[in-house]
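> forwarded from #structure-qc
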């Protein structure tokens, strides 16, 4: 009697392949994984050794939570899909605000306490969040996944350019000082001509604040290396088969590192200074402190994170052909909360499913969750081996840029593929849903400071294009299509069902 075939998500690959593919996932997420502890550690004004401790704890905790998410821990935790977990950028704003108000170790303890409280809340509300997925038909999920890819493209372009767009220019302090001096002299001269007791004239600059270009932003040699990595990845995908094609992104990054090193652009000073081994100690900064307002603020961030994670799970369901039910989605969202809670205990920050790695699944075509299990193991090792972590950190961002364009573009393409199955001909309302939802999602991209006149507590919600798209798409779908059952043609026919994310409604979370 024939044994039932194993789903590609559960396929166990040879150890050597797992190691290479897992390392590829780690390299893709590494820059984002260490960015948050660097930002928060510096905002807290911690000494370098404590910032290094934050980075090690971050890597270690990312590895543990990745194992829980991909491998599963009982039926309560883990989506059991190829998911890499990392600290979320959505919480950076509230954490920096705490750091500015309470710098040093006390601020760190407050952040960890808020994370523990918010993680516990996320654990409790995960089943409720999973029940909302009935409002995510293909016209909604396809639009969200498309915006995920478009949003990530900004990250990939920033890598290739050597930093985000706000680093392209800096204030020319010499010219600005000269302008200020001239404005003061002009104001003093005008004041001298006024009758006694008159109000002093306002100080006005003669023109806009002078800016000077950053020579490292968009440097042609950096763009050339990013383009070289892109060409290597595309050639491997086009002309290679099997394992070499699967690790095309990793090989492209390695090739880019070789060229970068040949040009003297890689710096290994941090590798030499880093220790060989360092244990991650729970509560290394002391007992966390708990503030209700901070916990509520972080809980709002976790709701945003969980909505975005649900979109990642749907994208992976589409890419892997693995159907999900509410219980599985709840287990995945619950892991976001567990990771945030564990992070607070292990001296790190709120966790989320990393969207960058969804693009890697699309590029490689490797659907096995065991690849991310291997990646989680590598992250744990890097967390305990600061020297190895420093070696990976030495890879310049522009080397990752060429690979990022491929991976993040593939996420957007996956969203477009879902939208091709939506009935636009017989239901013209679907066009409005997609059009307006994309428009809302692009607002934070084209106008990053659009919410500056609104309450600061709303910024984590309003600065996420993915969240704006999700809210708009769900609301517009309810407005135009109501809550009636989704037509079968919107989900694709039976033959295509294995290639489309299906939310099975029979299970209870």
């Amino acid at each position: 009697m024939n044994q039932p075939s194993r789903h590609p998500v559960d396929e166990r690959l040879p150890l050597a392949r797992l190691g290479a593919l897992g390392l590829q996932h780690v390299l893709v997420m590494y820059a984002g994984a260490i960015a948050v502890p660097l930002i928060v550690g510096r905002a807290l004004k911690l000494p370098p050794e404590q910032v290094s401790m934050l980075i090690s704890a971050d890597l270690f905790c990312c590895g543990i939570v990745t194992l829980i998410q991909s491998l599963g821990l009982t039926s309560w935790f883990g989506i059991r899909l190829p998911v890499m977990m990392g600290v979320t950028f959505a919480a950076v704003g509230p954490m920096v605000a705490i750091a500015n108000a309470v710098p040093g170790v006390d601020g760190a303890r407050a952040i960890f306490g808020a994370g523990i409280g918010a993680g516990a809340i996320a654990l409790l509300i995960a089943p409720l969040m999973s029940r909302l997925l009935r409002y995510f038909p293909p016209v909604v999920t396809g639009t969200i996944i498309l915006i995920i890819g478009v949003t990530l493209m900004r990250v990939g372009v920033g890598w290739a350019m050597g930093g985000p767009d706000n680093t392209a220019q800096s204030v020319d302090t010499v010219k600005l000082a000269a302008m200020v001096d001239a404005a003061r002299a002009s104001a003093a001269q005008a004041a001298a001509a006024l009758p006694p007791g008159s109000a002093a004239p306002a100080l006005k600059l003669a023109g806009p604040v002078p800016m000077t270009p950053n020579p490292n932003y968009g440097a042609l040699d950096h763009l050339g290396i990013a383009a070289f990595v892109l060409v290597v990845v595309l050639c491997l995908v086009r002309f290679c088969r099997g394992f070499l094609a699967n690790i095309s992104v990793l090989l492209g990054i390695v090739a880019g590192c070789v060229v970068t090193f040949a040009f003297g652009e890689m710096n290994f000073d941090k590798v030499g200074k880093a220790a060989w081994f360092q244990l991650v100690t729970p509560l290394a900064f002391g007992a966390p402190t708990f503030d209700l307002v901070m916990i509520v603020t972080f809980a709002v961030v976790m709701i945003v994170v969980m909505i975005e994670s649900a979109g990642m799970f749907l994208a992976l369901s589409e890419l892997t052909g693995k159907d999900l039910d509410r219980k599985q989605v709840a287990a995945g969202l619950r892991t976001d909360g567990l990771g945030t809670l564990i992070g607070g205990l292990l001296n790190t920050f709120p966790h989320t499913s990393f969207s960058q790695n969804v693009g890697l699944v699309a590029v490689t075509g490797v659907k096995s969750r065991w690849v991310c299990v291997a990646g989680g193991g590598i992250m744990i090792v890097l967390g305990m081996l600061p020297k190895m972590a420093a070696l990976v950190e030495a890879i310049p961002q522009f080397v990752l840029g060429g690979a990022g364009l491929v991976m993040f573009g593939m996420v957007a393409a996956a969203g477009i593929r879902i939208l091709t199955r939506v009935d636009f001909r017989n239901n013209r309302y679907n066009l409005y849903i997609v059009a307006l939802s994309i428009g809302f999602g692009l607002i934070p991209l084209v106008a990053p400071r659009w919410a500056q006149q609104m309450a600061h507590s709303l910024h984590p919600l309003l600065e996420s294009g993915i969240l704006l798209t999700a809210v708009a798409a769900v609301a517009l779908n309810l407005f135009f299509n109501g809550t009636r059952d989704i037509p079968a043609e919107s989900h694709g026919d039976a033959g295509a069902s294995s290639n489309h994310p299906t939310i099975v409604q029979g299970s209870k979370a």
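QC bot note: The CA atoms of residues 42 and 51 lie 7 Å apart. DSSP finds 19 helices and six strands in the chain.
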